[in-house]
Amino acid sequence: MQISESEDKRIFARFPVNLSLRFLDLLSNREGQAQAVDVSAKGIGLMTEAHMRPMTPVELWLKVPDKGDPLYTRGEVVWSEMIGPEKFRTGINLERADLMGISRVLRTR
Hints:
This protein is mainly beta. The protein has one domain (15-106): Thrombin, subunit H (Beta Barrel), CATH 2.40.10. Helix content is 7%, strand content 50%. The chain has a six-stranded antiparallel β-barrel with strand order 1-2-3-6-5-4. The longest helix has 8 residues, at 99-106. It is globular, with a radius of gyration of 13 Å.
């Protein structure tokens, strides 16, 4: 999904990351693995092997390499776009801004 800078309505800056995460699709109870490619206090960009339907509520456990527990959060799929065979770029809008969580992630970059 290509969005021009003038159309991008994000409030929080996105930061590139390369972190594994586990997710749970709350509609189908399907669990999966994904790679977080960018994060902000209110969203996460993912690479997944399967399409995730927009408006699907999800739970996420981000594996932060700081020897702590995975960072747990909840959100909703905003968009999912195929970018290659069995490769999808997916945007998640988080339920609430998590400034402490994003600071934990950024300390490990």
